[in-house]
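Researcher: I've been going back and forth with a colleague about how Peptidase might be arranged in three dimensions. Neither of us has a model we trust, so I'd like an independent prediction. The organism is Hymenobacter fodinae, in case that matters for your notes. Sequence below.
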Amino acid sequence: MIYTRWRLLGALCLLLLPTVLLAQTTLTPAQYQQDFDYFWTTVNENYCYFEKKQTDWAKVRTYYGAQLPGITTKAQFTRLLENALNELYDNHASLSTNLPDSRRLLPSGTDVWAQYQQGKPVVVAVRVGYGAERSGLRPGMELVAVNDVPLTQAVPPLLGHCLKIVDEAAREVALNQALAGTHDMLRKLTVRSQGRLLQLYPDKPTAQLENIRYAGLLESRQIGTVGYIKINNSLGDNRLMTAFDSTLDALAATTGLVLDLRETPGGGNSTVARAIMGRFITLEQGYQRHEFAAEEREFGIKRSTIELVSPRAKPYTRPLVVLVGRWTGSMAEGITVGFDAMRRATILGTEMARLNGAIESFRLPNAGFGFNIPTERLYRIGGLPRENFVPAEQVDLTALPGTDAELNKALELLKAAAKP
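Model: Here is an independent structure prediction for Peptidase. You can compare it with whatever you and your colleague have in mind.
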């Protein structure tokens, strides 16, 4: 669930291209200082995941505050705040503006995800239908360089300057920032596969990540007796509710359903989420727990709530499998843990985007643009942090390349469930 302090679509922080910084009247040094103080204080008082970060936020104020006297343009100030926010190494924290050479946002602005395995950067997931996949990149390949810069050199500059120690989470974020590149960068990836070095060009002939287009809010079809619905990153669009209802109605006679959330990195809103979940239950149930960190930090009194889902008309009661992956983010992660908590679906796939909490948006008083940070911790009803959820049914993406192993396994499960 996403809250805002100013009128902003909940999914804004994860849109592929935030509003590009517009030329405006130059601010005074005092105004830059005021905006920076507001930014630092707001994060200090409201960001709810400091306890699992190695960030020295007090040092952030000193380190970046010392750079303010050299700031004379909004572009420079934007870069300073980008770097300061990057100290949190949190993919759910972002500015609402960017520069042409800003880093693409994770996960919505990338098509490859990698982790360090035994000290080596290895591809663990590739976004289906995007340039990385078309160029030949596959899970299991070892990454060597980006644009001919070895990753051993490309990653360290993306790590924060104000970390107490560099933990694995910070290294993973920096690695994937290097792989995502900048908005104005055409990437060349050097990988090692089966002992050979390969040169791959995921942004040729066009930089697709800057021009994502979907055929519709969702896609659907019937596969034998099983229904299939894929959400196309539209969980923040209220029109999806009507489209989903009519699509599910058309598949009402199927023996089971696959709900594909593998292309939902851009967040959404809980109204749409509850509308979807409500079509699969017959009793009101809780789907996720919220904790409000700022109130606890200020008063020492813990506050938490459980959000409920109410059943809606014409419930679909047959077996349901939900497909998830690295591009299942934010509100889609909430839907996933909700279905799991309500024991209404089998969750199948890989780790999700692991985006922290619910975000809130704030606007700088002078510069006019905003920033978004997680201000509520989110949990599965049973107490597991939402970002730590892992599907019960996992799939090895390195097996049977060129096939949709997750969908095939889902169909097998539903076929077995339909047997008398």
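Researcher: What would you highlight for our discussion?
Model: I'd start with this: Confidence is low (pLDDT under 50) at residues 1-23. After that, consider the following. The longest strand covers residues 370-379.
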